[in-house]
Design brief:
single chain; mainly alpha; 0% strand
């Protein structure tokens, strides 16, 4: 699976994102709209982690998707 499929199916993916990163609000998820860089930025903001860590967390989560 590539990230374009996440963007295309963002409504379905939002639930999985919310399971992984519960501090993200519905407004955050609407604003992200499937854009990976936006997701990483919001994770950084909500969890107070470094950019590299957010990227690695998203990579790890993405690799576990069916």
């Amino acid at each position: 699976m590539d990230w374009n499929r996440i963007e295309g199916n963002w409504k379905q993916a939002k639930g999985k994102v919310k399971e992984q990163w519960g501090k993200l609000t519905d407004d955050d998820l609407d604003q992200i709209a499937g854009q990976r860089d936006q997701l990483e930025g919001k994770i950084q903001e909500r969890y107070g982690i470094a950019k590299d860590r957010a990227k690695s967390d998203v990579d790890s989560w993405f690799s576990r998707l069916p």
